[in-house]
Design a protein that fits this description.
Distance between the termini: 46 Å
Shape: globular
CATH class: Mainly Alpha
Number of helices: 11
Strand content: 5-15%
Largest sheet: 3 strands, antiparallel
Order of helices and strands: EHHHEEEHHHHEHHHH
Low-confidence stretches: none
Structural class: mainly alpha
Length: about 220
């Protein structure tokens, strides 16, 4: 018997807790082994709606500028389509440009170079770090958030995609741009053959709520010292 009824999005309070947790604060936890991907993956997941494997697979060459818009170029397998996702201003404000320069200086090609893969996938490592496994606590538990609520609904790293979906659905409806909603989620929209203009996609992405204005990669680095 399943122990939960399915995934749900994080509540506003839960998002506040996650993005004000120790990863985004000033104190390093006892026995913590901080990795750059601990900082960046939840942020990129929230602001792009991408899956862990897609984010883990990003190369520097997948960060492109087209029609004046900086984008992530996401490629995955299965039913999710390749898509260009405009990079939200909150990611630049969190130090993405500085981090990209760091990756180049370290002579790596993959953006989250310190995220290891297992059988060619990154999601398993992310799942254990974020949600825990057995007696091992994940980031959720360390933030005092349960992975299954009292109603039996589950939260996980992929819940951030649901938060993204909720917000862009509203933004797309307000702009009468259903095609942008489908495209940004990598879903097939039989009524639209061509990808929407990047300027229109950026308009749908821009209203995503910024959870913590004090998030910055340099602050994350300062915790190491």
């Amino acid at each position: 018997m399943k122990s939960h009824l399915g995934r749900r999005a994080f509540s506003a309070m839960e998002l506040h807790t996650l993005f004000n947790g120790y990863i985004y604060g000033d104190e390093r936890q006892k026995r913590e082994q901080p990795k750059h991907w601990h900082f960046w993956l939840p942020l990129i997941a929230y602001y792009t709606g991408a899956y862990s494997d897609e984010i883990g697979s990003l190369n520097l060459t997948d960060i492109i500028k087209k029609d004046g818009v900086h984008c992530f170029s996401f490629t995955t397998h299965g039913k999710i389509r390749h898509r260009l996702i405009p990079i939200h201003t909150a990611l630049w404000q969190a130090g993405l440009e500085d981090y990209i320069e760091h990756v180049k200086e370290e002579q790596h090609s993959r953006l989250l170079y310190d995220l290891p893969s297992k059988s060619g996938r990154y999601s398993e490592k992310v799942r254990i770090w974020f949600s825990g496994e057995g007696e091992r606590l994940g980031y959720l538990q360390k933030c005092d958030l349960p992975s299954i609520d009292q109603q039996g609904h589950k939260t996980a790293i992929s819940s951030l995609r649901l938060n993204f979906e909720q917000q862009i659905r509203i933004a797309a409806l307000q702009r009468a741009n259903k095609a942008a909603f489908y495209y940004l989620l990598g879903l097939k929209d039989e009524t639209t053959a061509a990808a929407p203009p990047l300027s229109a996609l950026k308009q749908v992405i821009s209203p995503l709520r910024v959870i913590n204005n004090n998030v910055h990669w340099v602050r994350f680095l300062d915790r190491h010292n």
